[in-house]
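Here is one chain, start to finish.
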Amino acid sequence: MKLNLRRGRFSPPQQWLSVSKKIITASAIGLLSMQSFHANAQGAWTKIATPAPDPNLGVMLLMTDGSVICKSSAGGTDGIGNVWDRLVPDSKGSYVNGTWSRIKPMLNTRLYFSSQVLKDGRVYVSGGEYGTGGSSSEVFNPATNTWTAAPAPGGFISDANSEILENGKVLQAIVQGNPFIRQVKIYDPASNTYSAGPSCIGGHNESTWVKLPDNSILMVDIGSRNSERYIPALNQWVVDATVPVDLYDPFGSETGAGLLLPDGRAFFIGALGHTAYYKPSGNNNPGTWTAGPDIPGGNGQVDAPAAMMVNGKILMTAAPKPTATGGVFRSPTSFYIFDYTKNTFKQISTPAGAVSSNIPCYVTMMLDLPDGSVMFGYQDSSNYYVFKPTGSLPAAAKPVIGQVNKKSTGVYQITGTLFNGISEGACYGDDWQMATNYPIVRLRDNSNGNIYYCTTSNWNSTGVRRIGLKDTAQFTLPAGLAVKQYDLFVVVNGIPSLPVPFTPSFAAETSTVAESATMKTLKGVSISPNPASDYTTLRFTASASTQASIRIFDLNGQEVKTVMNGNINAGDQTIKISTAGLTAGNYVVRIVTSTSTENIKLIIQ
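Its structure:
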């Protein structure tokens, strides 16, 4: 619940609407006369050239065709809005120079609601702290540009989380007038029905949910240091470890974002400026919490966004932490980059190049884009911006394309690894979700530099850090695509795979798709004995001499052993690996060459 500008529990009084729009304006943030480009050592801000058709008032979502839809304040009669603006990148793949349009309005007006991009590419929204849709849900089909009502979830949804499970269903938190409610429902997109879910142990209202590599969902109970996890295999919430610092403030029970880091730990940001790391156990046992660094300058995160960038660092906003006399939602907002490898915050400029912006941080929002930048917007403005960070993650974090096979006219099946990335992407407190841990397929025409996005659907997993596991997805070619050779990429959270050659075919009876080059580098990868006790032997065939590293990781993504790092010759390879010093459990042996990454599961008993 937003206690200052969003005064009122379940309906938006007109007094609040007029006050918020008076305070949160372009002049307040200092952007009316901003430069279109501002760079600093951490990256560069660029203003999207054309303003959106309508002022922002909500979440931004990445569609599976590479476009972005942004909830606005337009439509309806209550000032909350039911219209979404759509941004399509230009022919070179630029979102800065993209084109805006509108999609069909929602059936209800909504503000601060649950949102998910489903496995089939549709969009699910539910509830809303303000507007007409607090006790309803609906689904958008981009193929038909239509919204369809879902059944009533059976309760009011505001400040409520949701997550997609591996089976494609949505775990949906319910808030029915009591901030400590524990009720959860499960929505099935295939049957368009809700069923009862397992109740939380503590209160989930105002909480932040983070998906872990074992597909469990972690949260900290409202107003406490207690944590719990939803275990899909058990279909229940279980008690987890105690957080060492307070993440919720005592005045509004608000908290900030939570994200999975590249090293496999979760990072939670608190309203009081405290942060905490969580190291997963990898099983149903409790993990380990440790305190992180405080946000500088007496700032905290009160329902505000953060985004894991392609370099693994976290872009975020923060404002003065709540106090008894100052209130909960305070100004000004500062921008930071958090480096988990150094355990430090670095303040950067606002999009205007100023030190801070005279707005509360809850009105800001972020989204990871397929071009490696982070899209930024703020409420009541039609202007959007992108931040392009410096640096990149190691090759081992990239998606790897295995094969591309034709299914039907213009439709292909793609297979590989890490199609769901190493995190969910961006996060905003508790009010909506904008995860991008699903595969986006991009084509590049090297003759003219043009970029084309296919439409993906039916990916096999909604997980994160699926090291050593096969991923699949379906993609459909854009209409009118010329038949010629392209570079094909899989992109997730802005991180692209290495390109593979691809020639599309629209003929029903033939396919001219080339097998991925990454499949030709290493052949016949195997490991035995598996399970292993004292040692195991890795075998594969290299098609050419190449630099290679072979390392062993645990299921939290932590490297536990380096087997080799050097050159291998073409031909059959046999490498004996000692397992001394490794405890019993599941591991992943990763082979990285200059053109490919191979992962194979290893069990040590």
